[in-house]
Write a structure and sequence with these properties.
By secondary structure, this protein is α/β, with parallel strands linked by helices. It folds into 2 domains: 158 residues, Rossmann fold, CATH 3.40.50; 158 residues, Rossmann fold, CATH 3.40.50. 34% of the residues lie in helices and 16% in strands. The chain has 11 helices and 13 strands. Helix 8 links the parallel strand 11 and strand 12.
């Protein structure tokens, strides 16, 4: 039996499909922040609210503790605080790494208590396997993809835009918002624009969106239902939206280093959409993306093939991997079903 921990909404989004796909007898308790119980319920998951502070305190792993499934390094450390001793780590993005040793990213440090890594692609899987040769690492795809809606009825064209949060571990993790802020205002004069963003950035972004008359849309599923094209700088949402068969625009901040290759978004899969390096190129890029000619569709599919080892069935594939891992005794503290 295994529990799950998810303390941010985007982590819930990735874990929920796998949780539902697990055999009932293997599901323990799904733990989440009190404010996210309703969000879990909307995804078909009954969750137990637990207040959990100090998730980033370094805690020594408990080898004899129960098992938990997480979608982030932060929740892995929160799990340690609750006494969990072995983890399944499901990637909540595309498995991007930045050439560092942080446990947040593929191949990072302090993940010795993860026994099973479930990854969307071979690039991220190889990084974890190299760092932890004794761990089980499997490419399963992205469970969230099966949950994303297609374009619904409504006015068209609709453009959605999003930005990363200001994470300072590398130039490429910083948002391109300052460079494209004024161009975004021009875009809003020509199209219906929806404002989205990383959950850690959206409270700040929302203030600017509203000043520009841009509707704030917090739920990415709603973005998928309403938008014809999606614009963003560095986020897995670029690839998730593209996987629904629609065009994206990729914003490159001037400080993103072209001579540094982290893989995936930087730069082998960056051609998932029309790339924009200058603010004055944003509006023309959106028009080009909306046209979505065959050569753009081909480039998009090629990039998606790098990012996702599978494009469908990931939740079931991940659940099968967890079930097999529990059944064959690889888990540290397996409870027989």
């Amino acid at each position: 039996m295994i529990d799950a921990l998810a303390y941010e909404p985007h982590f819930v989004d990735h874990l929920a499909p796998v949780w539902r796909a697990l055999p009932e007898q293997l599901r323990g308790t799904f733990l989440t922040a009190p404010a996210l119980v309703g969000h879990c319920a909307s995804l078909g998951v009954t969750a137990e609210p637990v207040r959990m502070a100090g998730g980033f305190v370094r805690v020594k792993p408990n080898a004899d503790g129960p098992l938990a499934m997480v979608a982030s390094y932060g929740d892995q450390k929160r799990g340690r605080l609750r006494g969990y001793g072995g983890f399944v780590r499901l990637e909540h993005g595309i498995g991007q790494s930045y050439g560092n040793t942080l446990g947040n990213y593929a191949g990072g440090a302090d993940c010795e208590d993860v026994d099973l890594f479930l990854m969307p692609n071979q690039t991220s899987a190889d990084r974890w396997q190299a760092a932890y040769p004794d761990a089980v690492v499997q490419v399963v795809g992205c469970p969230k993809l099966d949950e994303l809606p297609s374009r619904g009825e409504g006015p068209s064209p609709v453009v959605a835009i999003a930005f990363h949060w200001p994470c300072s571990i590398a130039p490429e993790t910083m948002p391109a918002f300052p460079q494209f802020r004024l161009a975004m205002a021009q875009l809003a004069k020509r199209y219906t624009v929806l404002g989205h963003g990383h959950p850690r950035a959206l409270p700040m972004l929302a203030r600017y969106y509203r000043r520009m008359g841009i509707e704030v849309v917090e739920d990415f599923a709603e973005v998928c239902r309403r938008a014809d094209v999606f614009i963003a700088d560095n986020t897995s949402a670029l690839y998730e939206f593209a996987a629904t068969g629609r065009p994206v625009v990729v914003l490159n901040a001037p400080f993103y280093r072209r001579n540094v290759h982290h893989g995936l978004r930087f730069w082998e899969a960056a051609d998932v959409g029309v790339q924009v390096d200058r603010a004055d190129g944003l509006v023309p890029a959106v028009k080009k993306a909306l046209d979505d000619p065959p050569e753009r569709q081909t480039a998009r599919e090629a990039a998606l093939a790098i990012v996702y080892g599978y494009r469908a069935g990931a939740a079931q594939r991940a659940a099968q991997a967890v079930s097999a891992w529990l059944a064959d005794g690889s888990a540290r503290n397996t409870v027989a079903a």
